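FW: tagging you since you asked about this chain on Friday. Here's the raw sequence from the shared folder, copied in full. Didn't touch anything.
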Amino acid sequence: MVIHSIFTGLYLTTTCGMVARLPIRHTGAVFMGMGLSGVMASLLELLQIILSPSTRVLIIYYLIFILATYLIAFDLHFALPLNAYYQHYHRTLPLSHHSVPTVQYRLFMILYVSTSLTYAVCPAILQGTSPLSPIFYSQTEQFTLLVCYLNFYLSTCLGILASTFSHLPCFWVAVLLTLTRLVLLPLFLISNYLPDTRVLVVVVQWDWTFALTVTIFAFLGGFVLQLMIVSILRGIRNTGLRSVMSMRCIVVILLGRLTGLGLSYLLPVIVG
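HL: got it, structure written out here
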C-alpha cells in the first residue's frame, strides 16, 4: 500500500505538471477526475451491497477493473505529448530565474489550510458518523455511502466546476470561504459522530442538516481548490515554469492531506 501510494503521488504530480502546459482551465479536469473517482467508488460499493456477490467474484472483477483503468491511464499519459493540441502549447523555452511573489505564498497557505480541513473531515468524520433518522437507522452502510461519501465527492466536483466558470476575485473570496469551512467544522463534531464513545452532547439531531453541512463544506472545498491553483498559475507565461508551479501546488496539497489526516486522529479525543 505504501509503494502504491508513492507511485500514485508521483503519477499525480507529473500529470499535473504536464496539464499545466495547457491553458489554465484544463487543470480542473485532473481534480474533477479525482472527485469523480470517489463518486464511482461509492456507486460500486453501493452496487456491491445491493447485489451481495461472493468475495471471490468481487475481488476478480475489482482486479480486472483496476488493471484496465491503470492501463488506460498510462496509455493516455504517454500519448498526451504526441497530441497535436498538446504540442501546440508545449514550447520548450529555457527556464529563467523566477522568484515566487509574496502573494503566491499566501495562496499556497490558503490551499494548504483548505486541504487540511478537507482531509480532517474526509474520511474520518464521514466514516464515523451514524444516522439518527428512522430511514437509515438500520442501514448505516447506505447512509455512509449516500449521505456522506457520494454527497461529499459529488459536491466537490460541482465546486470545481463552478470555480472553473467563476469570475470572482481571488484572495479575499478564498479567505472568506476557507473561514466558512472552518466554522462548519464544529458542526460535524456536534453531530452523531462516534456515538458509542462520545461524551459531547449531540446537538445536530437531524440527518439532513448533517447532509447539507457536508454538501456546503465539500462544495466550498472544491471551489477554493480550483480557485487557488488557477490564481497561482495565472500570471506565469513560461510553460516550463507553470509546470513547476503546478507540481509545487500538488506538493502543498499532499502536505495538507497529511496534516488533515493527522488532525483527524485528534477528533475522537475532542468528542470523547
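FW: DSSP finds eleven helices and no strands in the chain.
HL: agreed, and Residues 116 and 259 are 6 Å apart (CA to CA).
FW: great, closing this out.
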